[in-house]
Amino acid sequence: MPEGGCCRCCTGFIFTLGLTALFLWLSLRPDKPTLSIEEFYIPALNKTLNDTSNTTISFDFKLRNNNKDKGVYYDDLNLTFYYTHNLGLPVANFTIPGFRQGFKKSAHRIQTVPTVGLPWDEARREVSNGTGAVFRVDLKTRVRYRIIGVKTKRHTIKIGANLTVKDMGALVKHKDKGVKLSYAPIQ
User: Fold this and answer.
1) Residues 20, 46 within the same domain
2) pLDDT in tens, 31-59
């Protein structure tokens, strides 16, 4: 064997093994699901309605799995709604039962939940003066991914977003899109 041939062969093997490991890691790493509130409606804040006794919150929650060839298993999804002037006191809670979502799939969960302890006079005043009432939605869940037939360990997801409601009682949208929940730390 020529001089340095064994060393060159071992170095090439280690380099190839490292590149293979890097490409495998990049291709098997899952992306987090995209979660958003597409619709958010509070009938009691709709100024065109004469009846303000309907103190529920209706929402359309969208879950999108952008992964190619990776399914997502959701544990129960716990949604908590707050009126932003008192983030210590939730005004509504809702739990979406856990489910499996296939790759490149979207799911919508449309629900109506009752509210508790919301200062309606203050919220109506904010809607009437044009600033809009701001609500906060926080979500907490755990997910597992299915990669090549194997389920991963559970990953905790804690996300949230602020939702502004104007005089029609509906969510203010930008470019006709919903509000994406952010993975930024929840305050």
Assistant:
1) no
2) 899 999 999 999 999 988 887 888 999 99
Both 5 and 60 in a single domain? Answer: no
Same domain, 8 and 58: no
Range of the domain at 18: 1-30
Mean pLDDT on 105-109: 96
Which range among 2-6, 56-60, 68-72 shows the weakest confidence by mean pLDDT? 2-6
Would you state the pLDDT for residue 2? 59
In terms of domains, do 52 and 143 share one? yes
* 187 is a domain residue: no
Rg (CA), the chain: 24
Claim to verify: residue 71 and residue 105 sit in the same structural domain: yes
**Tens of pLDDT, residues 134-185:** 999 999 999 999 988 889 999 999 999 999 999 888 998 877 788 999 876 5
For the purposes of burial, counting CB atoms within 10 Å of the CB of 123, is it exposed (0-12), middle (13-18) or buried (19 or more)? buried
CATH code for position 68: 2.60.40.10
